[in-house]
Please model this.
Amino acid sequence: MRKKKMKDLRSQRWYEPNNMRGVSSRARSRQMGFGPEDINNKPRIGIINTWSDMNTCHSHFRDRAEEIKRGVYQSGGFPIELPAMSLGEILVKPSTMLYRNFLAMEAEELMRCHPIDGVVLMGGCDKTTPALLMAALSMNIPAIYMPAGPMLRGYYAGETLGSGTDVLRYWADHRAGLIDDEKLENVVGGMSRSAGTCMVMGTAATMMAISETLGMTLPGASSIPAVDSAHALMASACGRRIVDMVWEDLKPRDIMTEAAFDNATIVDMAMGGSTNAMIHLIAIAGRAGIKLDLERFDNISKKTPVLANIKPSGKFLMEDFYYAGGIRGLMNHLGDKLDLSQINVTGGTLGDAVKDQPVYLEDVIRTLDNPLYPEGGTAILWGNLSPNGCVIKQTAADPKFHQHKGRAVVFRDYADLHLRIDNPNLDVDENSVLVLQNAGPIGAPGMPEWGMLPIPKKLLEKGVRDMVRISDCRMSGTAYGTCVLHVAPEAAVGGPLALVQNGDMIELDIPARRIHLEVSDDELEKRRALWKPPIYPATRGYTALYGKHVTQANEGADFDFLHAGDETPEPLIF
Ligand code: FES
Model:
């Protein structure tokens, strides 16, 4: 239903008044080749495009932006493409996580400072999705998210290959001397066969599915492979729909409610989603003043089985997931576990979106009676080593380590890890617990994906492929292993992780949700008295700003001055 008239739209503040500002704005539209017939009485639609030559997963975004424009024109709107930092996961260093908040700020300000009435957000590669949704909730103008979609399956020698997951597996074999350079290069050649995001249930696939569950995509959009013709059609449908959303005044805060975030967590757990989702969900919800915490996630995890049989927890890939029925099929199987009354960008309910979606391949999308795993993919742990909580992807951990006690082998930072991990004299065995300190939001800085610490070479050669590993950083959603992550508070701010020493005994008990350092409180106090914080590596620029304002992992690692419920104020226009 139309709630807005042309005179009500925010773009009119730039264009319509009969004063010098409006004259100037209209004159500059002519400079671009657009006259009154192009722009008068048309909502302006921003298209925030995270394309760049350095974002390998978004290489189809130039085409998709044109397809979105086509849809905007079809619905009577006027499209305006706005480039934003693209955050390609593989090539941006030291970590895209350092820049998630940067993109969130940039996207918010792009929406704020330009004469646009609604926006299509183009994202997919890991941090782009949470950054864009954070911005959308802060700015709160009508918005629709267009997910990049996963790339096609990888292939090598008759075997399907999953991004990241199988690279890591073959890389471990190569380090162990089991495969030569030529075979590794052939694997590399078959791994990434098209545009699109990693095609395992990594952070990209997880966050795209979460954005759909939150209601921010068109139904079914998040599962479509990037190069399927259905993806181009979906892009133009986004362009058509956003124009109507402007007239209907349907905004992100109407859609991403507290109940929608619970739905998103349920779907994340049922997919065996990336541990990174815990941080991103807290950060996104925080932009609307919705407070999520790790206890809430763990309660949902205990009640939600994993249904998606997708790597790294299962055996299939995202292309299979699409053919099996996609995210709507999975939500259909979850049924009443979800609050199906929540609305999405269509204005209809989640229930409407999923009720008629069949599941075609029930080994790929399991039923509640036949789950892949009886609990959610991510478990939350607490204990004296991580008083504010930490996470583990229990479905990607060797079951023999679910309850384990071992001797700590400590690396004080990432440089130390690389210097010593393959030293034949390193005092380590397969029952040791590898500990990485000073790799968190402030310690690294930027909380990189270093949490799947490499197995020491001398153990790889003995056939060891998993060990208990603990750190205050993150792990790629494509990775696997018994990796305890996001330890909070982090070592660099004096969390107990900073006090662990070689030889300390550490107990991991996933069923009991416990991570415990077997060192007395008295001894820990003595160590604390001697502890000195590491020197932060930046005194200027964005990294210095980041170090002053980033919050801990259990708080979403957003900036303290952005993690708040207020909407972004409109700019003054004179
Ligand atoms: Fe872009 Fe994995 S590198 S999604």
